[in-house]
Amino acid sequence: MPPPDRRPEFPASPLPPPEPAATPAPGSGAIDRMVRSLRGLPPAQPWWGTGCAGQAGWFRAESAPTTEATPRFQQLYARARLGEAVLPGDATRHLYLLVKGLLGDEMFGYLEPNQVQLERRGLETRAVQVDTEGSLADNIEVVRHALEDAAFFGRSVVLVGHSKGAVESVSTLALYPELRKHVRAVVAMQAPYGGSPIAHDLTTSPELRRMLDIAFPLFFYGVSRSVDDLAYPARMEFVRRHPYAGEVPTVSLATSRYSRRSLLWPVARYMFERYQLPNDGLVAQVDAEIPGSRLVRLNDMDHAEAALVGLPGFANHHPGNITEALIALALES
């Protein structure tokens, strides 16, 4: 495990522009094309207008408060890194449903280390077959059917969602409260519950909007509506109509990372320079704080590290250990 970044916290004020980054070598994969387009984001300073300034964390004043759980998580995570079993004895009674985030089907190994580690601990896992390029509404129905199937067989469920998959998990329980009794706990990793600044800018800036409407169906066989679902106006409308207040024991992971060693460094820097928001490269840390949840805040993790094994020297955490510790924390509730 590499040492933590020397600068785990976001700086108090924007840094001077860095030297130009080397252009990645051309590739044929969809994710390669996405990374190249993200690296091509223009500097924040020349952008016009206020964008989504002031909208991050909009829901906190009108939602149930969170409970700080980072110190307890750090204890569990340290033990999990050493190979110790941190899950409670009754953890094997539940079915663990994993819900992928946006473009998860395009990423090799996405959520695989998380699932493998849980199965090594003797837990029964299943990946919910959401369309990772699909709309929030469609995927909520997929999660609903997965919960109904589990209930039919008398199973208690732990929902483990990453990114948009976490939003779909809590949104299903908000829309279908009758399913909550079948869910033992929810683990929401880096969920853009309040929205995402980068999704907002992609959908509201004319130049980026045109790129999104063309590139998303062409490269990912999806619809740009799935990105619209994570912009602030859509999240405000949905959450106000269907609030989630942690009625089921819930743990949320909210992260940030400001490091050149991060795969998402260009986007993290863009969001910080334009909005002064600590973020993980795709989600502002404050927007991942699920109302009513036990909250874990980490300042040295980007958006990829919770679901993908990173290169030594570039990633600070192993996704399997993170997931095991978060589930242990959730089952303590």
Question: How would you characterize this protein structure?
Answer:
The protein has 333 residues and is an alpha/beta fold. The protein has one domain (55-331): Rossmann fold, CATH 3.40.50. It is built from eleven helices and seven strands. It has helices at 30-39, 70-81, 112-120, 136-152, 164-175, 197-204, 206-220, 225-228, 232-241, 265-275, 319-331, and strands at 67-68, 94-99, 124-127, 156-162, 183-189, 250-255, 294-298. It has a seven-stranded parallel β-sheet, with helices on both faces. Helix 2 (70-81) packs across helix 11 (319-331) and helix 6 packs across helix 7. The longest helix is centred in the middle third of the chain and has 17 residues, at 136-152. The radius of gyration is 19 Å and the shape is globular. Residues 1-30 are annotated as: Disordered. This is Lipase.
